[in-house]
Design goal:
By secondary structure, this protein is an alpha+beta fold. It is 19% helix and 35% strand. The strands form three sheets. Strands 1, 2, 3, 4, 5, 6, 7, 8, 11, 12, 14 and 17 form a twelve-stranded mixed β-sheet that branches. A five-stranded mixed β-sheet has the order 9-19-18-15-16, with no helix packed on it. A two-stranded antiparallel sheet has the order 10-13. Strand 18 and strand 19 form a beta hairpin. The longest helix is centred in the N-terminal third of the chain and has 11 residues. The radius of gyration is 19 Å and the shape is globular.
């Protein structure tokens, strides 16, 4: 069972989506209100969602007929790095100009007790499904990073899972690790969606397949897949370190790292289209264009 947000008459509406892709309207405008109602009523999130699956609340012909926006208005998006072996290998390649002849700090992070966690985005910077993501003007090596996202409550409870695209500048990050914020944060450098899968309906978050396709001029130029079973760190470990002596807000999203990295000679170009899928959540699709063109 999933939650989505769609726009109707200019206003957001939260809906419950069943496994047959039928959407049912709730009285809420967002997931934070849904969280509040679950706490007030004492209902499990899945039970609360199920209570809205009635014929009179059915909306639209199908999920594809709705104009979807971000499924949760995340006040903050955080991300974990070097949580997969493939990610460590890619970061080492960047940091050593491809020489791979010495240990780097990425090796140390991969094996350290403390994970790498960094700030990724504010809600205002997020791109919704099908909205254009930005390409940074001072980078010539940019890639998407397909990731499983954890949707958290203010008490660090896991409410669900979503798809995240952690856009990255490999050249900027590889030049100097202190440039990480510039390699990760700029206008429309992150997207989440299209849905939040409620945590209680996911039997094993370490058995989810993640896929990524990149299309250019109507042709597929990259395809990759991975499993969350390849994660080196446990999800509760990542949540622990994010919430340790930190203030979380309802709807905070934590991206858990990537295991899908395009070839080292690949970089995104204007007009490319990125499609990321995760079992049971859906597909998150975004085109890309120069970030400077996205100024409102």
């Amino acid at each position: 069972m999933r939650l989505v947000r769609f726009v109707e008459n200019g206003l957001p509406v939260l809906a419950v989506v069943t496994d047959d892709d039928r959407a049912y309207r709730t009285p809420f405008d967002g997931m934070q209100a849904f969280m509040k109602e679950a706490r007030l009523t004492g209902l499990q999130p899945e039970a609360l969602a199920e209570s809205f699956v009635t014929q009179e609340r059915l909306v639209g012909e199908s999920l594809s007929s709705l104009k979807l926006t971000v499924p949760v208005e995340a006040p903050e998006v955080w991300a974990a790095g070097v949580t997969y072996l493939r990610s460590k290998e890619a970061r080492n390649y960047e940091a050593t100009d491809g020489k791979l002849d010495r240990e780097t700090f990425y090796d140390k992070v991969y094996d350290a007790p403390r994970p790498e966690i960094f700030f990724k985005s504010t809600g205002a910077r997020l791109a919704e499904p099908e909205e254009t993501l930005g390409l940074r003007s001072d980078s010539s090596w940019q890639v998407p990073e397909p990731e499983l996202g954890i949707v958290l409550g203010s008490d660090s409870t896991v409410w669900g899972y979503t798809i995240g695209n952690d856009m990255s500048c490999r050249d900027i990050e590889g030049e100097n690790p202190l440039y990480l914020p510039q390699a990760k944060i700029w206008r429309k450098s992150c997207s989440i969606g299209p849905a939040v899968r409620l945590a209680g309906t996911v039997s094993d978050p370490y058995a989810l397949e993640i896929t990524c396709r990149i299309e250019r001029d109507g042709q597929e130029v990259f395809r990759g897949s991975a499993s969350t079973g390849q994660l080196k760190r446990k999800l509760d470990e990542l949540v622990h370190y994010l919430s340790l002596d930190n203030e979380l807000y309802d709807g905070t999203v934590l991206l858990t790292g990537t295991c899908i990295v395009p070839p080292n000679d690949f970089t995104l170009q204007e007009g490319d289209r990125i499609i990321i899928g995760i079992d049971g959540i859906g597909e998150l699709a975004n085109p890309v264009a120069p970030a400077s063109s996205l100024v409102k």
